[in-house]
Structure formats: C-alpha cells, structure tokens
Amino acid sequence: MADSEAEKAGVCSSKNERLSTAMKRTSEWIFSQEIPSDVTVHVGEASFSLHKFPLVSKCGLIRKVVSESSDGDLTSIELPDCPGGAEAFELAAMFCYGINFEIGTENIAMLRCVAEYLEMTEEYAIGNLVGRSEAYINEVALKSLAGAVSVLHMSQTLLPTAEKVKLVSRCIDAIAFVACKDTQFSMVDWWADDLTVLRIDIFQRVLVAMMSRGFKHYSLAPLLMLYAQKSLRGLEVFAKGRKKFEAQHEHEKRVVLETIVSLLPREKNALSVSFLSMLLRAALYLDTTVACRLDLEKRMAAQLGQAALDDLLIPSYAFTGDTLFDVDTAQRIMVNYLDLELELDANEQQRIPSSSSSGELQRVGRLMENYVAEIASDRNLSVSKFINIAELIPEQSRVTEDGMYRAIDIYLKAHPALSDMERKKVCSLMECQKLSREACAHAAQNDRLPVQTVVQVLYYEQQRLRDVMNGGVAEVKLPAAPAKLNIYSNETAAATVSDELSLLRRENADLKLELVKMKMKMREFEKASLSSSPQTNTNTNTQLQGDKPPLPKKSFMNSVSKKLGRLYPFVRADGIASNTKGRVRPAKDRRHSVS
C-alpha cells in the first residue's frame, strides 16, 4: 500500500515537473516571439501589459481571478493591495516569464510578501517563488546579523503580509540570538544605527527579545540614547520657535517618547543626567502622560548630584507668558531628591555618614543655590515661588550663606517694587551669622536690603570681630534664632525700628567708615601679635576681684559697640531682649569696696 502511494506521489511529482518545464518553455517562446499581450494588470498607478498564460501558470490568485470572471475574454486585472507595489509585482512577473534577476537582502522581503499575495506556491508550479524566497531567507539572510537587520528594515513597509508569513518575528529572533551569542558585541556597531530607523513598535520588540535571551538591560542604554536622539531630532527647533507640530506628527513623536521612557533601564547611572533632562524637556513639550513625566523627574532626582545647572534650566512650554523656566518641574525634582535622602536615612540609620555622601549633598546644595540665583532675575517669578524653592535647599549643605545671599540680592534687584514686608520675607531665607566677611562687607553697603537685615549683618560682624580682638581662641558663640525672630516676628520691635529709620540712615555712612578703620586696626593687631606674645600683668585689683572679668578699656571697639547698641536696641550681647532704654548701675557695697 505504501509502495503504491509512493509511486503515485512520484508520478504526480514527475507530471508537475514536466508541466513546469513546459510552461517555462512556453513563457520563453511567448517572450521571444513578441506575441501581443492579452491582459493588462493594474498595480497602484502602474500598468503592465502581459500575457495570461505565464501568469496563470504560477500565480494562484490570477488563476482564480481569470477562472471566476464572468467575462470570457478578461483583459484587465486590478491588484490594489499588492505588497511592495509595482516594484514587487514587476519582479514576480519577471519570475513568471523566467527572466533572471538577482535576489538579495534588499529585495527578499518584498519577494516573499508578493509571492504570498499572488499565491505562488508549489501547488501551482515546482520551485515557485514562495519556496525559492523561503530558501534564501533561511539559508542566507537570517544567518548573519547584517542580513537579519536589513530584512527586518524592509519588512516594516510590507505589513501586515510580513507578519502573516512570520518574517518580522523570525528576523527579531535572529537578531536577538546573534547579538547575545556574540561576545564581542558592541552597541556602537554599524547595525545599531540601522535599528534606529525601525518603527518604534518593532524596535521595542527587538529590545524585549534581546532581554529575554539574557542581554543586560543597562547595556541597552546607548542604543536607546541613539534612537531617541534620531527620532526626536528637530524638536528643540520647534520648541525654541514656540511652534507646534502637525497633530499626527506630534502624536507619533509622543508615542515614540513614551515607549523609550518605558524601556529605560532602572539601574542608577545607566543614563546621563543630561540625556534624562533632554527627554524631560521633550516630554513637557509634547505633553506626554503624567506618569511618563514623573518617571523622568524621579530618575533625575536619583542622580541630582551629577547634574549641571543647564540640566535643571528647563524652558517653560506653557505658552502663557509666565516664567521663563519651568520652576514647578525643578521644584518637584528637588523634592524627590530630598525624599530619597530621607528614605536612605530611614533604611540605614546605623550607617556611618561617609565623605562621599556629604560631598554629594554639598554639591546638590550648591546646584540648588545656583539655580535659585539663575531664576531670580525673572521678573515674572513671584515671591511665593522664590521662597518655596529656596527653602528646599538643605541647611546642612550650606557651609556659608553666600550663595543664598547672592540669589536674594539678584531677586531684590530684579523686583524693585516689592513691599517692605515682602523684602523681609525674602531676606529671612538666609542666616546672617553664616555670611563670609566679604558677603558681610557687601551686605552692609547694600541699599536693596531691609534696614533690619543690615543691622543684623553688622551685629554679627561686630561680634565676630570682638571675639577675634579678645583672642579668637574660644569658640564663637553667636546668639541663635531669638535675635532673628525678634526682628521679623515681633511687631513691637519692628515698629520701634521703623521709628528710628531716619536716625539709622544718618549714622549708616559713619558706621561703614568705622568698620573700615576697624579692619585696618585688626591687621595691625595681627602683625603685633606675631612679633611679640602678650604678657599677663597681675595687680592687687585683679586679685581682689577674683573670677570677675576686668573692665574693658575705652577703645575704638567701645565706640563701635555703643553705636551698634543704638542701632540694635532690642537684643543684648548675650542674646536676651532688653525693655529698658538705659543701663541701671548696681549699688555700690561700700563695706567691701577697695579704694
């Protein structure tokens, strides 16, 4: 029985081969004799004048169209959905006529799809186009990374037929297999550039297939960066010109960006902060989903210690004439960073603070100060926004208040119409006792600062100089918050200071001159202390006084102290508020006096 079936199959195969040979010879004869065409095939806008016999002998679709036609003499055939268009059909027609042409990775995808569409299978002719194209794909094209990439690139224009014949999936598997197998594989290879021209959905499938075969997620970062830079190219030109894309084009770029963000590796430092900033700017401009934007903000916050000022200076794309930069986005990034720091502290309470962590905190603090100073010159920046973002700067990251003072000075200069209360609120952001000597000298002559702030600066500077004059060995103990709070929160004190504004202005010039003289005396004192060491003289009076400190000599410091006492009437040198205008002299105990 089996032998009988084998014989029948052999006979059938032999008949098909003879029929195929006969049809080939007939096609060659028709072509050589230049017999007039009897059918016109329309593919898109192109028309082909051909002969029915060669087409019917190998194309199942055309055979069905001819046999099912009610017109006995069919002269026109329409093929509107031919994959690959006129170019692909022309190659298929050449194959039907037996005309030789070269098959390569550039046209194999087109040949395979048009052969599927025209039903050029072994059922109608031995060695038909479907079998020939499949053999080339399996034995040549998919054996190399270059061939698989090239075929995949061409296949994306042949959908859905390319998906039907599983050409796309086979190319993706081949790319993933070869890429993961090659130990010398590098993401800067030539083929990575070819992948960037793929449609975003096919590109995503390639990356997912590579990861499923064991390719490291963080190693895909260079490829994602390359794809993003090419696919979003030109976006910054429209952003600067405040122009909008066409709706369809904008939608396509939005889908591309959201897909790229979903593929980004989660490993820290896998991507640069500047690249994340570029993606965030594009996300804001294209108005992507909130989840996409928040994801990018959190990624930037995790690497804020590596960011530069330009990474945070994100333009505002609201098109409403508001602030020049997107302050709200930068503020959320800073809040995310502080939240991450709190989580680290909560999870690692027993850890010993390292110099690297403290160094990063100081870098972030300087970055925030520079950002606040940069946006301070924006005339549309409200007081509340300026204060809210400035308050985010961690105190432990601010060794001095010079950066904060610089930002405040820029803001006051750009907003001269602020009320006294608003200027006080802005100046309350800095701690005057942490200003450097240079900053104090500048603040003392800064007419933009409220007079209360100038008084506070001069007070702390005088106290610092006094400590230096007294030896500078002991730790400088500055009065803490009460002095600062009394100035800005005590209504009575503020009212009293306002009454003395006229007097303070008259004495301001004299006080600045005295400060300059004080610095000159300080330099002379330092030179004298280096040349000879001070000697301690004891006398009868100091012995009788016991632990009481000696009375201060009348000097230049006394005169400045008296003048500052008049400028700062509410706080004593020990930080305690005083309600009396004069000093009450203690009663002298004559029984224990020493004459």
What this model shows, in words?
The chain is mostly helical and 595 residues long. Among the domains are: 34 residues; 106 residues, Potassium Channel Kv1.1, Chain A (2-Layer Sandwich), CATH 3.30.710.10. The chain is built from 29 helices and three strands. The chain has a three-stranded mixed beta sheet. The longest helix has 32 residues.
CATH superfamily of the domain at 35-140: Potassium Channel Kv1.1, Chain A
* Overall residue-averaged pLDDT value: 75
Total count of strands: 3
Spatial strand sequence of the major β-sheet = 2-1-3
The number of helical segments is 29
What form results from the Cα inertia axes?
Answer: elongated
Largest sheet: 3 strands, mixed
Strand content: under 5%
End-to-end CA span: 147 Å
Structural class based on helices, strands and sheet pairing: mainly alpha
Name the helicity range.
55-70%
**For the CA atoms, what is the radius of gyration?**
42 Å
Which blocks of ≥5 consecutive residues have pLDDT under 50?
1-13, 472-500, 533-595
Throw out a few tags for this protein.
595 residues, Potassium Channel Kv1.1, Chain A, 3-stranded mixed sheet, 3 strands, 61% helix, disordered N terminus
Write the layout of secondary structure elements.
Blueprint: H1 2-33, E1 39-43, E2 46-50, H2 52-58, H3 60-67, E3 76-78, H4 85-96, H5 108-118, H6 129-139, H7 145-155, H8 161-164, H9 167-181, H10 190-195, H11 200-212, H12 221-231, H13 235-240, H14 247-263, H15 273-286, H16 290-302, H17 309-312, H18 327-347, H19 355-375, H20 383-390, H21 402-414, H22 420-427, H23 437-444, H24 451-469, H25 481-489, H26 491-499, H27 501-531, H28 540-545, H29 556-567
Parallel strand pairs: 1-3
Antiparallel strand pairs: 1-2
Helix pairs in contact: 2-3, 4-5, 5-6, 7-9, 9-11, 11-14, 12-14, 14-15, 15-16, 16-18, 19-21, 23-24, 24-29, 27-29
